[in-house]
## 1
Amino acid sequence: MMSPYRHAAAERYGAEAIVGKVVMHMCDNPSCCNPEHLALGTTWDNAQDRTVKGRGYNGHSKRRNEADRWFRDQVMARMREAQSGSQV
Ligand SMILES: [Zn+2]
């Protein structure tokens, strides 16, 4: 059984595309299913994400915004790459 957000990501990116990928929430809400908030990453990306958030980030502090902005920039750059047709 697929998590709802994985299902949403599969609909957006295609079932094949998410195989072996981690579905990441740009909005940082694990229960969110808005495809617009979902990005695909490798487990490496996810580890980086955790590293960034783990450092000085303990839930709801202001530092979270810094980490979020950094992470969002990374994700948005990747999404732009993906949308600009780097997939052959
Ligand atoms: Zn969301």
Note: Residues 56-60 have pLDDT under 50 and may be disordered.
## 2
Amino acid sequence: MRCLVYLTYCVAVSCALAVVQPLPNVQQAAPPAFCHDQECPKYSVTQSFTGYELRHYEESVWVATNLTTMEFTQNDSSEMFFKLFHYISGNNSKHVKIPMTTPVILKVEHGPGPTCESFFYDHFMVPFEFQDDPPVPTDPSVYITVLPPFDVYVKSFGGRPSFDEKMAMIESLVTEIADPSRFEERFYYFAGYDGPYTINHRHNEVWLVARH
Ligand SMILES: *[C@@H]1O[C@H](CO)[C@@H](O)[C@H](O)[C@H]1NC(C)=O
Ligand SMILES: *[C@@H]1O[C@H](CO)[C@@H](O)[C@H](O)[C@H]1NC(C)=O
Ligand SMILES: *[C@@H]1O[C@H](CO)[C@@H](O)[C@H](O)[C@H]1NC(C)=O
């Protein structure tokens, strides 16, 4: 099933064609409302389009874990989440509790060649006060990683999307950008801003990294 989804994605990428219109820069004044009272990575909106926007993110430090699989299950998803959750709960070199941040971002990267194997990377942002010297994870499959400054096309949507619904949003974003030379085709991100107990105003995003 997943293979079919990826193939559809590839077809959508190679078929897309059109021109996007730049708009003037819009700076981010305060953290957006959808971060609620949690820290989230700093960005500015550099262009707005119908249905999506282009953001510039500053460098940021994350705790991450990864998995290579042909089929990404709910079990895989919660296992990765809890590895990171244990890190912030005190399973780290300083035995400190680290506040939760938002969003949780999942990077999905297609494997090379004809197999369906893909690489999944789950990330929590390290709070700003810890970014200069983050506690070291005690779990060897959990690690600290720096995301360099980057530009990303972002499409936002609400609800509680399934993996397939998120894939469909990626495909919509691909169609809307309409020019595959503008973004990295090998990988994309899902960003989820809410825990399972948030009922209203849930916020989700799909990201495609802009190419220069
Ligand atoms: C979830 O994954 C773990 C580790 O791979 C495995 O031990 C466990 O049996 C899995 N659970 C289910 C319900 O598949
Ligand atoms: C904490 O890390 C240790 C060492 O990796 C591991 O054995 C233990 O299960 C972890 N505990 C939690 C709550 O993640
Ligand atoms: C994936 O995780 C392992 C630790 O389990 C790490 O050594 C490796 O560098 C990670 N891969 C990438 C591409 O970050």
Note: The chain has three helices and nine strands.
